[in-house]
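**Backbone geometry record:**
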Amino acid sequence: MKVNAITVRPGHIMDYNDKLWSVLKIEINQPGKGASVIQVEMRDIVNGNKTNVRFRTQEIVERVRVDEVEHQFLYADDESFVFMNNETYEQINIHKDMVGEPAVYLQDGMLVNIQVHEDKPLGVTLPDQVTVEIVEADPVIKGQTASSSYKPAVLENGVRVLVPPHIASGTRIIVRTEDNSYVERAKD
């Protein structure tokens, strides 16, 4: 289906130069003079090559329609992740590169959506937000909670995030998987 380039998001599948590409990252640049452009980092689904392409924001691009099938994460081995289709109970191995950076948030039993095109897996979409525990954070300083500054913290999966000053080590928080940003304290 044809769409404006400005609507492209990470995880989308595009047909570009007669190949299927998975969008990894986007960056919208708005120069002071001239038209806005969108810089798209993509990975060739067949051979894994990456490329960066710049489109005008109003340029028409071809987005491939894919089916999303819900799967449950089971486990990881050396090179792939194993997921199970909840309806058919079939297991599928997906190479770690196909999941990308959000793979650090995979948890046992987590439900994910796998994009499928002509019975071939193309990508994996994790939930927008996950609950994780902080294992390392600077101590809470009395009176610091009034400021709007954030402090660094390390999650149980090793990811570094910025959290409000009142959040201490051992606290469970909700994190946005797309950009590793703090959302809120988890309700226990």
